[in-house]
Write a structure and sequence with these properties.
Elements (H helix, E strand, L loop, with lengths): L1 H10 L12 H23 L1 H18 L1 E4 L2 E4 H32 L2 H5 L6 H27 L13 H20 L5 H16 L12 H7 L3 H14 L4 H29 L2
Antiparallel strand pairs: 1-2
């Protein structure tokens, strides 16, 4: 208690002290304690889906498809979908941790109300939860790469840069996922998460090039964050870094800034009126 009072007093006269107290690590420490007890189960099971897609589509449908043309390259279909599924794996980890996990803390356990009754500010809570979601996305990306490498799906050592790229993507999805979840009040509303996530996965070029679609649909897909994420990881995976890569990075920079702002403002409006 004395430490909490000392922190509050030290920051009382600083600009923005009601929003940010510099204690995001307290949220992460709490998540680590919960992980050791029970939350490791959904984290472990959430990684399985992209791996199953890799095995089913890559080594099942891949035998029927053969090679895929990517720009001026012709590559094996399984190699083509591997970076897309790695990006999807990181996105899944970030999305589910920043939506269902946040929804429970927000509406069931009322955990955030208790946190914001301490010297913690809404930006501390937002950053802490989002950083924890990034850890989940990072673990998924590393585990997926560890499976893809022995299967011969990694074209070069530079593909290891797909890991920080995947974490960057997860940051964007986690910040926006938490902001959106703060408006949901029932489990029925949370069902919208799955309705949105599934099309994002199926129609974003993870399993086939989007050039197969009509021009108007291809344009709409290129507006979606999942397409930018998959293309960013795929560019890094194959070493095809160009102006398009900068566009994908810029897209997620804007997404991260907007997501953090919306999440912080929403938590402040909910609990600090």
């Amino acid at each position: 208690m004395s430490n909490a009072v000392a922190i509050a007093d030290a920051r009382a006269n600083r600009t923005g002290h009601q929003i940010y107290a510099g204690r995001s690590r307290a949220i992460i420490e709490r998540s680590l304690i919960a992980l050791r007890s029970s939350t490791w189960v959904p984290i472990a099971t959430g990684f399985v889906e992209p791996v199953l897609y890799l095995l089913a589509f890559g080594y099942g449908m891949g035998e029927l498809i053969g090679n895929v043309t990517l720009g001026d390259k012709t590559i094996d279909y399984t190699v083509f979908i591997a970076p897309g599924l790695l990006a999807t794996s990181a996105m899944n980890g970030a999305i589910y941790d920043s939506t269902w996990n946040v929804f429970f803390k927000l509406n069931e356990s009322k955990l955030y109300q208790g946190m914001l009754a301490t010297p913690l500010g809404p930006l501390d809570v937002a950053l802490g939860e989002i950083i924890w979601a990034l850890f989940r996305g990072l673990s998924y990306a590393i585990a997926f790469l560890a499976i893809a490498a022995p299967l011969g799906l990694v074209p070069s050592f530079s593909a290891v840069l797909a890991i920080p790229a995947a974490v960057f993507i997860a940051f964007g999805f986690a910040s926006f996922g938490m902001a959106i979840t703060s408006y949901f009040k029932t489990y029925q509303q949370m069902g919208m998460i799955n309705i949105v996530v599934l099309p994002l996965f199926l129609f974003s070029g993870s399993l086939y090039p989007i050039s197969v679609y009509p021009d108007w649909l291809e344009f709409l897909i290129q507006l979606m964050p999942s397409w930018h994420g998959i293309e960013l990881v795929r560019n890094v995976w194959f070493g095809d870094l160009d102006s398009g890569t900068l566009l994908h990075i810029s897209y997620f920079v804007v997404m991260i800034i907007c997501g953090l702002y919306l999440t912080t403002r929403r938590l402040r409006d909910l609990f600090m009126r």
